[in-house]
Every structure is written in C-alpha cells, then in structure tokens.
Amino acid sequence: MKHEAIFAGFGGQGVLTMGMILCYAGMKEGKEVCWMPSYGPEMRGGTANCITIISDDLISSPIISRFDSVIALNQPSLDKFESAVKPGGNLFYDSTNIIKPPTRDDINIFPIPASEEANKLNNLKVLNMLMLGAFIEVVKVVSDESIIYGLQQVLPERYHKLIPINNEAYLIGKKLSESILTKI
Q: Within 13 Å, how many C-alpha atoms sit on residue 17's CB side?
C-alpha cells in the first residue's frame, strides 16, 4: 500500500498540520512516511501545501506531480491541483468556500462543507480536522486512533485542552464523507 496526497490551502488553515498529523499516525503504525511542505513567505493568508506519502515500502522520492488524493481548502488550491489527481483518485474540497466546483468525471469528488461545520462548532481552526476526517474515512490509510496520536504529537502540550474539539471535528468529517460514499 502506498498513498500519495497533497493538502493545499491558505496559510493559517492548518494545511501543513494535516499532513504532519498523518505522518505521525503513519509512523505510529510502522509505515514509511514523507512530509514535504511548501509555503510562501507570508505566515497567514499566503498559499501553503504539503505532499504527504504513506507507504508500507520505502519511498523512493518525495517529488511527485500526480496524486492519489488532493485535499483543497480554497479556490486557488482547487484550481491548481484538480488536474493533478490521478484518474480514479480522490478530490476533497471545502464546498463552503469553493465558488467554481471541480469538473472532472474520472475521479471521486467529495464536497465537504467543512467551514460551515467548523462554524457550527464555533471554532474555524478545526476546519483542517474536519477535512482530515473526511479523507481518512475514504482512504483508510491509517486508523482513527493513530490520527489522534498524531494530533497529540503535533499540538503543543499547552493546547492539549483542544484535543476533544479537534477529535469531535474529525469524527464529523468522517460522517460527512461517509454520507457521500453511500451515494457513489
């Protein structure tokens, strides 16, 4: 098993964190992992993305241009990476913030109203965990327990009080994705 994904959005949306959580989860399960971030000089508001690879075997190169899954949190990311999804792959996007939805018919498309759900939880910062839950529900590359372990590793200890709301958001994301899977 090998899964190559890219998480993309604006800086400050937790894009790099999603990839890092996934990598820690993979390491917990004894998998080979790769996390390659890319971001502009802006701390917030600039574009950011990270390539994350989880594999049972050694990873030959982190430099790839076609992905099994793309997780896009904003319109510029969707526009840039929609064409990079391998045929038969998955495209997850925050349907709350995307004006022009994807148009491909050779991939699985998952419109997740993540910003809307994050607003219902009164915490926009859990948007990334909603999307990560949606992604894991479909690709099942690591277990839920390993994702929570990854969250504990990535989140500084002084913010561990936020683990319950992040876990709640993660579970909501899984349910949102599950409801789409039943229609496919």
A: 21
Tokens for 117? 């759900």
CA distance 184 to 170: 22
Question: For residue range 138-161, what is the model confidence (pLDDT) as tens digits?
Answer: 999 999 999 999 999 999 999 999
Print burial letters for 53-84: b (CB count within 10 Å at least 16), e (below 16): bbbeeeeeeeebeebbbbbbbbbebbebbbee
Return phi, psi of residue 55, to 5°.
Answer: -145, 150
pTM above 0.90, yes or no: yes
What's the mean pLDDT when you consider all of the chain? 93
**Is there a contact between 123 and 165 (Cβ–Cβ < 8 Å)?**
yes
Which pLDDT value is given to residue 44?
A: 63
* Domain positions in the chain: 2-181
Supply the CATH classification number for the domain 2-181. 3.40.920.10
CB 92 within 8 A of CB 114: no
Q: Distance between CA atoms of 32 and 4, rounded to whole angstroms?
A: 12
